[in-house]
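Weekly sync, protein design subgroup
Attendees: M.S., D.O., the rotation student, P.L. (late)

Item 1: inverse folding check
M.S. brought a backbone from last month's batch and wanted to see whether the design step gives back something sensible before we order anything. D.O. pointed out we never logged the input encoding, so this time it goes straight into the notes. Structure tokens as presented (440 positions):
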């Protein structure tokens, strides 16, 4: 036997079925069952065979039959589903002048909202939801103004998919409670619509068997992708960092065979979220996504933030052992999420449309292996509670009510509401309204 052969054999551990009994030898090395009694397996010393994975950690095969990219239409003028979930009187900020509130009947539907005037003097308005919408309570221009008008409370409904924002107000002694109810009902309707577009699935952290391009996966799951024509259901996948860059990919489905979005993540990649009640929308680079729940959005933002921290500190490419630790940490966070449950299948509340991959936003021409390129997002105008700070939610900018023609900028007393359905509140700051109405 040559010296080389001796050296190689000395660095290998020889385990034979039945050789080790309980209490004998090194417990770290165990026999591997084989097809025959005499089968022998060799392993590098110091790298014993891994324990069987728990059931929840076994890589899962695709959970649904492949049917190509699923896309939905999200036009504003889609017909609303009847009956309405709630209807009632509120005050609506006039879109034409931005200075007056008009009494209207607001109706919340499962796929949108409508505005109707009590005397039918003006044409009503109907707006269909998009998953890229939010509702949020807002306030007057100062705390003092809020305190001086305790009977008036504002909230806004923003369909920032189309750059559209409507301001409403409640009034009276119970204005705070009434506003909270309206905000909760709108938020519930938006969540029902968003979740109706998702299949039943579980977030994943392990690579797919036989799919080597998923080997560095940290987190994967379904999400909705914004595009100019509507929304698309994609399967997002976050990759661990490698050579000072990380990757994010989105596929047609959880089979991960066809990639529709592909971008690299570096320290300059913009990550932001939309701030609203139970809002699940966030942005990565130039791409806008919506997750199944707000809790899942926070998990994605936290995972992306952790990857960016490693990039910022020039961390070395993780070893297989480190990847296992990373995935274990992500799995713990997934297990701590509120249960989504398995509700009865609900038909999608948006109509399907024929998919066209050319309409989807992409990180570059064509698809290739990660990483492709580093994207640095161009600044986006604020709309509907945009927060560029990531998971740290901040209150949106208040609606500024400015003085008009030397007036004190106050609001008419409550008694005047019963005499007219049109109330002047002073000019609303044009910059804030322009920002809130800006496109996504």
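Designed sequence read out in the meeting:
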């Amino acid at each position: 036997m040559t010296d080389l052969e001796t050296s190689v054999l000395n660095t290998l551990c020889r385990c034979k079925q039945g050789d080790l009994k309980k209490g004998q030898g090194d417990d770290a090395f165990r026999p591997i069952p084989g097809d025959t009694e005499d089968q022998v397996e060799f392993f590098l010393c110091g790298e014993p065979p891994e324990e069987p994975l728990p059931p929840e950690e076994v890589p899962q095969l695709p959970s649904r039959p492949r049917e190509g990219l699923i896309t939905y239409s999200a036009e504003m003028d889609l017909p609303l589903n009847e009956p309405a979930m709630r209807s009632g009187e509120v005050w609506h900020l006039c879109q034409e002048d931005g200075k007056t509130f008009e009494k209207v009947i607001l109706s919340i539907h499962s796929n949108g909202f409508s505005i109707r005037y009590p005397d039918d003097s003006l044409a009503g308005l109907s707006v269909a939801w998009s998953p890229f919408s939010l509702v949020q309570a807002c306030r007057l221009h100062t705390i003092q103004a809020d305190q001086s008008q305790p009977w008036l409370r504002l909230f806004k409904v923003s369909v920032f998919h189309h750059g559209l924002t409507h301001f409403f107000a409640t009034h009276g002694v119970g204005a705070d409670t009434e506003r909270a109810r309206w905000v909760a009902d709108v938020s519930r309707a938006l969540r029902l619509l968003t979740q109706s577009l998702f299949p039943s699935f579980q977030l994943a952290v392990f690579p797919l068997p036989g799919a080597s391009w998923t080997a560095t996966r940290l987190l994967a799951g379904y999400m909705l992708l914004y595009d100019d024509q509507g929304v698309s259901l994609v399967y997002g996948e976050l990759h661990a960092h490698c050579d000072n860059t990380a990757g994010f990919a989105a596929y047609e489905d959880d089979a991960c065979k066809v990639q529709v979005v592909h971008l690299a993540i570096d320290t300059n990649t913009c990550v932001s979220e939309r701030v609203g009640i139970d809002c699940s929308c966030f942005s990565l680079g130039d791409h806008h996504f919506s997750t199944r729940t707000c809790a899942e959005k926070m998990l994605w933002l936290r995972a992306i933030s952790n990857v960016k921290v490693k990039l910022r500190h020039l961390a070395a490419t993780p070893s297989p052992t480190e990847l296992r630790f990373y995935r274990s940490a992500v799995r713990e966070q997934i297990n701590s999420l509120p249960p989504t449950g398995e509700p009865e299948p609900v038909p999608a509340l948006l109509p399907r449309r024929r998919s066209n991959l050319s309409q989807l936003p992409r990180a570059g021409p064509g698809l290739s292996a990660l990483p492709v390129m580093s994207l640095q997002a161009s600044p986006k105008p604020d709309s509907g509670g945009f927060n560029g700070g990531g998971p740290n939610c901040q209150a949106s900018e208040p609606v500024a009510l400015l003085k008009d023609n030397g007036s004190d900028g106050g609001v008419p007393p409550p008694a005047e509401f019963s005499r007219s359905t049109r109330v002047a509140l002073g000019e609303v700051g044009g910059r804030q309204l322009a920002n809130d109405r800006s496109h996504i």
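Discussion: The first helix runs from residue 3 to 10. Confidence is low (pLDDT under 50) at residues 4-52, 361-440.
Action: P.L. to compare against the previous round before Friday.
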